[in-house]
Structure formats: structure tokens, C-alpha cells
Design goal:
single chain, Aminopeptidase, 2 domains, seven-stranded mixed β-sheet, 7 helices, globular
Length: about 280
Amino acid sequence: MKRADFRLAERIRVRWAEIDAQKIVFNGHYLTYIDTAVGAYWRALALPYEQTVVYLGGDMYMRKSTLEYQGSARYDDVLEIGIRCTRVGTSSMIMSAGVFRQDELLVSGELVYVFADPATQTSKPVPQELRDVLQAFEAGKPRVDVRVGTWNELGGDARAIRTSVFVDEQKIPADMEWDEADASCIHAVAVNRFGVPLATGRLLEHVPGVAKIGRMAVVKSMRGSRVGRSVLDSVMLAARAQGQHEVVLHAQTSAAPFYARAGFSERGPVFEEAGIAHVEMVRAL
């Protein structure tokens, strides 16, 4: 088992509370590390877990877990927990796990899950839709489809995401969220392989030659999964197609590192918008 065998690896730093009298990570904590990485795997699939199991009419129940210890992690080690789906049976699926310190394999594991009815906990066939998503991800196929279009085409999905993120979560007054620009903007919405909308953004002309990106929002369960980056890349591609030479946006300061990783630079001082600290950021196209 090698680190390169895994498309998904969750990074974890060992905490003081996780080591034992031998000054190594207590063996039971590796299952917690792996379970945390399984959550990241579902995000990598672009499947919000709770919403997905409701949609599928069943849930995943642990049937068996085995670990093989080959080395020891210590306090403050940075570990990468690799997860991959190695087999999907009639009603079960097998996940392989590897705990790595750089390229050194410390612990390998196998998890057997059974897809079952939550009410009775009796097994059910794994839905073909889920089987297809798992196989597509492991084959390196795209996890989301980014749709680009008008408000008439995408407004329903964009409105649902923006209401959840800006109005419900961030408590921005609804009358500040909606404006007349929506009708003339280019909008982008990322949907997963079940057609569930996960992220949105919009593009409008700021001044001749410069486009403005705004209303970038990602549902809470999908943040950190690069779904937002797929929307950002799509609206920048749309700006290039318009012949724009620069894009500008007002980033919430907490999101500034996300835009910096996409090549944006801060310009000017921090300012307040809708009661939230923002900074202007720009990027040449």
C-alpha cells in the first residue's frame, strides 16, 4: 500500500491527548482518524452525507473494521489518511485506508459497510446511482458539473444556495442580498452527479475590460472540497470569453486565502460590507 494509491487523503496533526503512556498514538485513535477521512471522502465525492442518504433511502452501517499496525505516530506528527473504495458488492462496500507519515505507511485498514434501511437496519442493495458515483470518482472522472447561464435558467438553484449561506447562515438581510443585477449577470451553479446544487457565483461587467465576480457561495457541508473553485474557474472562463482582461471581487476576509490560492491579490484596505469585513481582490486574465 502506497500513498499514491489514494485519490483522497485527509491531513491530521496528532494532538497531545491522543498519545498514551508509551508516548505514541493510542491504537484506538486510528479508527477516529480513518472515520474523519471517510467524511472527507464523501465531500470529495461532492455528496453531502445527510442529504444523500435521505435521497438514497438508506444509510451506511459499519459491519467490520480491521487495522494492521506497522509503525507508530507520535505527538505533533502530520499524518495523511488515505481512503479509497475498493469494492462495491450487492449490499456492501469495502473501503481501504492507509495512515501515512509522509510516504511511510504506519497503519493499514479495511472497513466493510452495509447499505441498509435506517428504520429496520436490514440490508438493501447499494443503489446504482451511488455505485456509479464511487466508480467514477475512483476512475478520476469529474465530481460536479458546472452549469453557466442566465438567472432565468439557474436562478432557482442559485437562490436556494445564496439564501442558505448568506441569509440563513450569515444573517445578511434578505433585502440586501437580492438586486436587479441578477437579471443581467452570468451565473454559474455547480451540481453533483445527483443534480444537487452545491455552489454558485455570478459575473457582471464592472467597467469596460474588467469583470466583477460576486455572490460566491458554497453550501456548508461542501466547503474545502474544491467545489467552490470549480465555480470560480468557470466564471473566470466566462470573463475571458467576453474579452475581459481583469476580474475583481470583494472577498470576505475569511475567504481571502481561497481567492489568493486562485491567483488573486488584495488591493486596498479592509472595509465593511453587509456588516462583514471584506477586502477587494483582483486578478489579470
